[in-house]
Design brief:
Strand content: 35-45%
Number of helices: 2
Helix content: 10-25%
Distance between the termini: 56 Å
Order of helices and strands: EEEHEEEEHEEE
Shape: elongated
Length: 119
């Protein structure tokens, strides 16, 4: 049986989790103080995902960049593909919160959206 130590990112507590794994499946999770910790641990050892944040260039505006993020979690292994896809992306002002900047980024099925306004 394999054991994995994790720090939970499901809430601000940052609990130290210990996950016992048998044949790729979590069989025992300890250290969590809330249900989110157990959910995080299960997901992290079976299918880890992340929200990716970055910036893209805004042309024709005094603000030169706008912050962006994936609308949903993407597989952890796709993070570098997403970052490569964002390299060199330029958009035009105005930009509104939630505007789609890149659709289906890196073939993930997830859009990159703006997280702030530039008008």
């Amino acid at each position: 049986m394999e054991t994995k130590d994790l720090t939970c990112i499901g809430c601000p507590m940052g609990c130290s989790l210990k996950v016992e794994i048998n044949q790729g499946e979590p069989v025992n999770i300890t250290g969590n103080t809330c249900k989110r910790g157990e959910d995080y641990a299960r997901k992290e050892v079976t299918n880890p995902t992340r929200i990716v944040t970055s910036t893209v260039i805004v042309e024709g505006e005094s603000q030169s960049v706008v912050s962006v993020k994936t609308r949903e979690d993407i597989p952890k292994g796709k993070i570098f593909d997403v970052m490569r896809a964002l390299k060199g992306v330029k958009i035009q002002a105005p930009v509104h919160v939630g505007d789609v900047v890149v659709s289906n980024v890196a073939g993930t099925g997830v859009d990159i959206v703006a997280t702030r306004e530039i008008i």
